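Bacterioferritin-associated ferredoxin
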Amino acid sequence: MYVCSCFGVTEEQIREHAAAGACTPRRIASASRAGTDCGSCVRRIQGLLGRGGCPRREAAARSAGTPPQVPGVPGPSAPGAASPASPAVPAPAPAAAVPAAWPGRSVAA
């Protein structure tokens, strides 16, 4: 079935590109041009890629003996290593002061 009708890209082609390491819609677009014209197929591409990891990245991690890294999730730290401190949340900025009178106008009392 066609995923991108603008460039005639099929589900099978998307899966082949993903298996070759194109694990994001942007990488799929670089490999096949799918999603670069009207953009209506990008959500379908995201659905085909799913939330699973990249097969090529997972295979490399298995051969290196490390668990696959999930984007946005910190990996396990080395035994005895200190855990990083959580980032400080900045305080909200104070509201901008409103001038008593706009330039060129006087304030009527």
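thats it. The chain is about 30% helix and 5% strand. The two ends are 72 Å apart (CA to CA). bye
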